[in-house]
Write a structure and sequence with these properties.
The protein is 30% helix and 26% strand. The chain has 562 residues and is α+β, with helices and mostly antiparallel strands.
């Protein structure tokens, strides 16, 4: 009997001992095994680096709540929860979450809170839901708030390109969850980081005087207006992570071009927003005006880097509208929208960390770009025009009267014209095998070097527009007339992050998750069959195994009795 009791107890001792040992090891050893094909529960190394710096507990408020949300939104909710749990597993401090409904706030504070969400890009969205009583709409806030004991920030998590289906937008939003959450955490940990130079002295930045860029990048970068003529040597620009040339109206000197050349040779990131022609919209009434070629002095430098801004303008049938005075109504002047093909709403994006998932970016008077041979330089187009575009070579007539007639689609035979280019790799100096400008020593000159250059043929793409009533500058991307918010602000933020740290958390935006929808035809045809299998199969399997085990035990005991 004692031997029999020991034989029975021994397996249970080993079982409980193994479980206890596993629990104890789990307290000291953390490990995760991601067996999914797309590594859904793994993080980018840059994200892990951000999480390793978390020194205080964090809390995430999920604002996406609502009654009877459709399946796609519930899937997004579940993905947010899974992402937060994954972040918590990698973080040295706890990251918790809860759901919060902005509509649950008292009426007196509700409006102020909803307006405060706008600074994070979180705007309410009307969602249509099919109910038994018919189609109903409810207001949702597809965003998150991340906070620690001192600060709070937020992020919009429902984003997609124009023309995408709802399923594609949801899938892309899920793909970008890691970036959005890690970027919000990064803002809490390091409110300001790299410095950006906005060059002045040649009529740069236009009417808003850089407000659009400062408003969009404030809190992530320190921005400085830098008169290039005061720079004495290339080292004066070296501490800037990025240098922006935003729509110059004057020409750069040979000395200034050399400084920009050597900035790139020493690993800098240069962003050139350059108009190929000078167009004056103020003179477009009546007989109109002519947009003439504009010389900035930068053409040779850009050509050596592998790109050319052409002396022309692009028109596109996916256009914006220009407000013009259309007569009086009583004693009040009336403003009417004028179709304006020079204002391009570009929604075709490259699958690149900078532009993946961007909504429409608005361009105003953009010139075409051509690439030229430059050994060692990789050229990536970022944004494209629509399937109905055309190029008008300078001089280009710019007149409101031309828009009185409906555009002829047959004239717009070009498609997918690149509007922005990213150049990366080993650049060769414009001054290789040439005399250097006066005042610069040959010993400090670099013939080549790795850097990054972004070129856009529109000097106003990052310029804020003004409020129609009081003239105050609006946040970048807001159109005061159409009440539309374009993705120019997000484009600038992604661009700055990538150029400052291309292998940072911005690289996580390349994550791709495949949509695996059910075959709706098969669902209808085989519904009854699979319902029957799911209900009866477990019961049948249980009975079969129970019968087999019962037969084995009966046979075993019958032998012992004999």
């Amino acid at each position: 009997m004692k031997s029999s009791a020991t034989h029975i107890v021994k397996p249970w001792v080993f079982l409980f001992g193994g479980v206890l040992l596993f629990v104890l090891l789990g307290q000291f050893l953390r490990f995760r095994v991601d067996l999914t094909e797309e590594k859904r529960f793994s993080l980018h190394p840059a994200t892990e680096e951000v999480l390793s710096q978390v020194s205080d507990p964090l809390h995430v408020d999920i604002l996406l709540v609502g009654n009877n949300l459709p399946g796609g939104m519930r899937r997004l909710q579940k993905s947010i929860e899974e992402t937060i749990r994954t972040f918590n597993a990698y973080s040295p401090e706890k990251i918790t979450f809860s759901y919060f409904d902005p509509m649950s706030i008292e009426a007196g504070e509700q409006e102020e809170f909803i307006l405060s969400l706008n600074q994070y890009g979180i705007n309410p969205t009307n969602l249509s839901v099919n109910q038994l009583t018919g189609l109903q709409t409810q207001l949702i806030f597809p965003g998150i708030l991340v906070s620690n004991e001192e600060y709070e920030t937020g992020a919009l998590i429902l984003k997609g390109e124009r023309g995408m289906s709802p399923d594609q937008i949801l899938n892309q939003s899920i793909e970008n969850l890691e970036f959005e959450l890690s970027n919000a955490i990064r803002k809490l940990l390091s409110p300001e980081s790299s410095a950006i130079a906005m060059l002045i002295g040649h009529g740069e930045m236009g009417a808003d005087e850089g407000f659009g860029m400062v408003e969009a990048l404030d809190g992530e970068f320190e921005l400085f207006k830098v008169p290039l003529e005061q720079a004495k040597k290339p080292e004066d620009l070296a501490h800037f992570a990025l240098v922006f040339i935003q729509g110059p109206k004057g020409s750069y000197t040979e000395r200034e071009i050399y400084l920009l050349d050597q900035y790139v040779m020493n690993g800098g990131s240069l962003v050139v927003l350059l108009d190929g022609v000078a167009a004056d919209i103020e003179n477009a009434g009546g007989e109109g005006t002519l947009a003439m070629p504009f010389e900035s002095g930068l053409d040779n430098l850009l050509f050596r880097f592998g790109i050319r801004v052409n002396k022309d303008l692009i028109q596109d049938l996916n256009f914006g509208y220009l407000p013009v005075m259309g007569g009086n109504f009583g004693d009040q002047q009336q403003m009417v929208p004028l179709p304006w093909p020079f204002y391009i709403n570009a929604g075709r994006m490259q699958a690149h960390p900078i532009t993946k998932g961007l909504d429409v970016v608005n361009f105003r008077f953009v010139s075409s770009l051509d690439t030229v041979m430059a050994a060692g330089v990789v050229k990536t187009p970022l944004i494209f025009s629509s399937d109905y575009s055309r190029i008008l070579s300078a001089p280009v007539r710019v007149a409101f009267s031309d828009m009185e007639q409906e555009p002829d689609v047959k004239l717009y035979g070009m498609k997918n014209l690149p509007l922005a280019y990213l150049l990366e790799g080993e650049f060769t100096s414009l001054y290789k095998n040439r005399f250097l400008p006066d005042g610069f020593a040959k010993a400090d000159f670099k013939e080549s070097g790795k850097g990054k250059v972004v070129v856009i043929g529109d000097g106003e793409v990052f310029q804020a527009q003004s409020n129609l009533e009081n003239g105050a500058p609006l946040p970048l991307g807001e159109d005061p007339f159409s009440q539309t918010t374009y993705a120019n602000r997000l484009f600038l933020q992604n661009l700055a992050q990538y150029l400052a740290e291309p292998e940072g958390i911005i690289a996580s935006r390349t994550r791709s998750l495949q949509i695996r929808p059910l075959n709706k035809v098969k669902v209808v045809q085989q519904k009854t069959y699979w319902q029957t299998v799911n209900v009866l199969a477990p019961v049948v399997i249980l009975l079969v195994f129970g019968g087999i085990i019962g037969a084995i035990r009966k046979n075993s005991y019958s032998k012992k009795i004999k």
